[in-house]
Amino acid sequence: MQRTHTLSKYAAAFAILILSLCSFWLTSCNGNGNNEEETALNDTSGIPALLERKGELAKAAEWQKTKEKVAELKERITQNPNDVKARLQLATIYMVEARVTANPYYYQATFKILDGVLDRDPNNFEAYTYKASVAMSLHRFADAKQLAEKAKSINPDNAYVYGVLVDANVELGDYQKAIQMSDTMQMLKPSLEAYSRASYLREIFGDYNGAKQAMALAVQAGGPGSESAEWARTTLGDLYLNTGNLDSAETLYKTTLQLRPNFTNAEMGLAKVEKARKHYDSSIKHTENAIRTISEVGYVAFLADVYELKGDNDKAKEIRKDVIDQLEEGEKNQLKGSVMQHNGNRELAQAYLATNDLDKALQYAQNDLKLRPNNIDANELIAWIYYLKGDYANAKMHADKMLATNTQNANTLYKAGVIYKHSGDVAKGDMLIQKATSVNKNIDQKVLLAAK
């Protein structure tokens, strides 16, 4: 599932996990049921099938070429089962399909293809690297790190694997190791991927100006209109959004939509800008535009938040209930034949938090934290849940950890300030709240409401 800060945004750019959320009020979902996907995954040919796209995605210019290329590669594999190059090409296509269609089927399909490569070439560098990327998408961060380390031992001079190691170490909370991996990546091959990782690490350590500079380099390194370049441009927009510059963020998002129409990151960027301006109808419109292309659970959860802020609490509750139902069902009914199961603890914690079911939210947040006790996002989530439960001692303990990297994220600082004030350290709390509003006066309205 693509993060609302679940998976680091830079990991997400190249290894996005998105769980399809097909709700009764959404008509544009991919709509592939488990039975169809399990049949496709366990295709008698030994090569998982390519699923037909649905809705707007089926109209994309590259879709026909994708189908033709997959057919060609499958034929090559049929003629020569030991054609490792064809298997790797097929895996990369399926990884792209996972990102484009938001269908997690393709992660399991990619694993199966890559296992076929490793059966024939046990030390294949690309296979281990791609498996590490998919493991990141499934939020199996320790597994991803182990697979990437194996790939690095085979070929220590390839920049791509260091990108995966940056992402895995960030998610596991080993930020100094992530910096080392990023520096090596930069040295081996300065690129959009390398600049974007450097940008995120600078953001994590509170250097927004440096983060913007590095992400601007990432934009320049990509071809205008390409998915990677427009991802970088919209992420640069997010950095301006998070520092209160709504106009600059809006300009970047609109530029992306001119160069790459219907790009969901840009639509959601505009939705966030309009939410910050309290233009809720416009925010809903942009969110629904994104959902029509990809029904990503983070987008749907955001939609519920905007409906609540607009005053339509019934609609917000309806959407949130459906989100939880779909997430719970997805975790219980993962595809038969899955090579690696998805870890959905954080998404479920956030979903239950949105419904104010704090006991369930805490349960899943604790599960998430056990897997990565030093991750600042995991600590922020559980700190806020403890605060809302009135357990200020535990909230403060995790607030200390969520500030460990000197983050300057305004919402994080504001939450920490509120927690410290209620824990008795009023001076520090006031200082953090003042710092938060100096970074970005547009503090998330849900945070403000919960803090009262």
Structure, described:
The N terminus is likely disordered. Helices cover 71% and strands 0% of the residues. It is globular. Among the domains are: 137 residues, Alpha Horseshoe (Serine Threonine Protein Phosphatase 5, Tetratricopeptide repeat), CATH 1.25.40.10; 87 residues, Serine Threonine Protein Phosphatase 5, Tetratricopeptide repeat (Alpha Horseshoe), CATH 1.25.40. By secondary structure, the protein is mainly α. Helix 9 runs antiparallel to helix 10.
Question: How do you describe this structure in short?
Answer:
This protein is mainly alpha-helical. It has helices spanning 9-14, 34-41, 63-79, 84-101, 105-120, 125-137, 141-154, 159-172, 175-188, 192-204, 208-221, 227-242, 246-259, 264-276, 280-293, 297-310, 313-332, 345-354, 358-371, 376-388, 392-402, 410-422, 426-439, 445-451.
